[in-house]
Amino acid sequence: MAVKPPNPFVTAAAIAAAQRDVVHPMNPDAIRHTACISDMAGMQATGMGVHKVDLAPGVESTVLHAHAGESEWVYVLSGAATLVLAFAGEVEERAVAPGDFIGLPAGPMGTTYAHLLRAGPHGVSYLLGGDRRALDVISYPAHQGEGERTLVIAGGEEVCLAPV
């Protein structure tokens, strides 16, 4: 007898009920109210993840970072934010608004943009998606007076956070 898969339809109410606060381990002020909606639709084994994320006014999504193994994308649903991009020591900020899309391909360190979002005065809601690889290396440029750090994730678990 066939096992019935999870229902692929997820309501807005179910997404809102599933959202939880996630605090970034390197920045206790970076708090995302998030739910993995692709998992809710039964897509865990696809290698793809999509999250619904809400940021309160002025809150940063994460610490400035770049991925070597996993590409990411952001689609802004409502509110406003500032996209912070860093490459080769140069930092630029861009205003983002509903309907804007941000594509962040993975690549060897030094070939991709480090990035984060900072919510505007009324907050921001967005979809965040990307690859789910067995191995990812995340580079964090100098943050809060600390030197650059690298995080290795294997099989979804943090393996090593080390200074560079």
UniProtKB/TrEMBL annotation:
InterPro entries: Cupin_2 (IPR013096), RmlC-like_jellyroll (IPR014710), RmlC_Cupin_sf (IPR011051). Residues 53-107 form the Cupin type-2 domain. It holds the Pfam family Cupin_2. It comes from Vanrija albida. This is Cupin type-2 domain-containing protein. It comes from the Eukaryota.
